[in-house]
From TrEMBL:
Coiled coil: none annotated. The keyword Membrane applies. The chain crosses the membrane at residues 110-129. Gene3D superfamilies: 2.60.120.1440, 3.55.50.30. The keyword Isomerase does not apply. One of its GO terms (molecular function) is sigma factor antagonist activity. This is Anti-FecI sigma factor, FecR. InterPro entries: FecR, FecR_C, Ferrdict_sens_TM. Keywords: Membrane, Transmembrane, Transmembrane helix. Residues 307-374 form the Protein FecR C-terminal domain. Residues 161-248 form the FecR protein domain.
């Protein structure tokens, strides 16, 4: 791939913080492939003056990597922006006469920003780990319920069938066998809060002024009105949240910013959209975002899409799938512009569709961080 393609030309205008938050750049730094290595080598050969900037951005991406688990992406981005801005302002405010003597490596502004950022992440990570270690390793359903001051109603499904539980606000909970659900008879405060042990599917009535929160095995799920599944069995090491419709925010109950995220009326934390899921590792308090095992078509016109392609460019095919399933597919549109597809993919689930497409164009794909990343050498015109 040429270093002068439109997809790569945008990098000529990038500053260091733009590179740090560019998905393609981060994937190259953290999970390089033969294709991305060749692509960036060619780009650097065409623009050797950008090599120092690339080296600095790589260093920041690698420095950020250890801190990504305890902090949300939004929190890290805000930290980077604040740190870089403070560094720029500090450098601009210096009144000393300019000098042509090069700065020592350890005094370069970008390295100071990285050091300040690492200090910030280190302190935040230490506080996060300290709070995790000083409290109980796991937050149990029984502990959460007994700590509540208000009287709660509990539904315990002792049958072999899923039972419906209708809440005062109109929300519906489908409680699986063995599941327990505790909630207030009426949601009178600023939030609608319930406590779950086991598995349940939620259809939450919309109320933007009163967020709906589910506490389950150390994980808090926050919504304004949507449908989703939660699996939180007492002896299971993981908690899983799968989104069907709407948007869902999740965060650990041991998160130092937990109370702030609960009180905020907006969705803060790690946000999931339809066909995405989160797996929360309870012992490690680790969140891993992915796609559900069998992504479903979004409701609406997309369900009537026949997925019949006749010499259709692959970028158009991927865009069609993105809109139909609400998933993000990362691919190089320039590289795949000369790859056509003629196929009828009406009946296959999403991943089978992708398997067929990738076999046709000799590509492969991975699911990373709740999105699909396609790797390809392209097609000859």
């Amino acid at each position: 791939m040429s270093g002068s393609t439109p997809a790569m030309k945008r990098y000529l205008q990038y500053h260091i913080d733009d590179f740090v938050w560019d998905l393609a750049f981060r994937q190259w730094v953290l999970t390089p492939t033969r294709e991305t290595e060749a692509q960036w080598r060619q780009w650097l050969a065409a623009h050797p003056d950008k090599a120092p900037l690339i080296d600095e951005a790589r260093a920041l991406v690698l420095a950020l990597q250890p801190g990504e688990l305890p902090l949300s992406e939004q929190e890290i981005q805000q930290a980077v922006q604040r740190t870089v801005e403070r560094t720029r302002q500090r450098d601009l405010s210096k009144t000393a006469a300019p000098t042509t003597r090069p700065l020592p490596f350890y005094r370069r502004p970008w390295l100071r920003a990285a050091a300040a950022l690492l200090l910030l992440l280190g302190i935040s990570g230490w506080l996060w780990l300290n709070r995790l270690m000083t409290g109980p390793a796991l937050v149990s359903y029984e502990q959460l319920v007994t700590e509540q001051k208000q009287t709660l109603v509990e539904r315990f499904n002792q049958t072999q069938q899923t039972i419906p539980v209708k809440l005062q606000d109109g929300s519906l909970v489908l409680l699986k066998p063995g599941g327990r659900l505790s909630y207030a008879p009426a949601f009178r405060g600023p939030r609608r809060e319930v406590y779950l042990s086991g598995e349940a599917f939620f259809e939450v009535a919309k109320d933007a002024s009163k967020p709906f929160l589910i506490y389950a095995n150390g994980l808090t799920t926050k919504v304004l009105g949507t449908s989703f599944l939660i699996k939180a069995y007492p002896k299971d090491p993981n908690v899983t949240v799968e989104v069907k419709t709407g948007r869902v925010a999740v965060f650990a109950q041991k998160d130092p910013a937990h109370q702030q995220k609960v009180a905020d009326r907006d969705l803060t934390g790690l946000v999931l959209v339809p066909n995405q899921k989160i797996v929360f590792e309870r012992e490690q308090a680790r969140l891993a975002k992915s796609l559900v095992d069998n992504p479903q078509l979004l409701p609406g016109p997309s369900q009537k899409n026949p997925f019949v392609f006749d010499d259709t460019p692959i970028p158009t095919v991927f865009t069609t799938l993105e809109r139909a399933y609400g998933v993000n597919i990362v691919f190089d549109s320039d590289l795949l512009a000369n790859c056509p597809l003629t196929a009828e993919l009406t009946d296959q689930p999403l991943f089978e569709k992708l398997d067929i497409i990738c076999r046709v164009i000799e590509a492969r794909y991975d699911v990373m961080d709740g999105q699909i990343v396609v790797y390809s050498h392209g097609c000859k015109p």
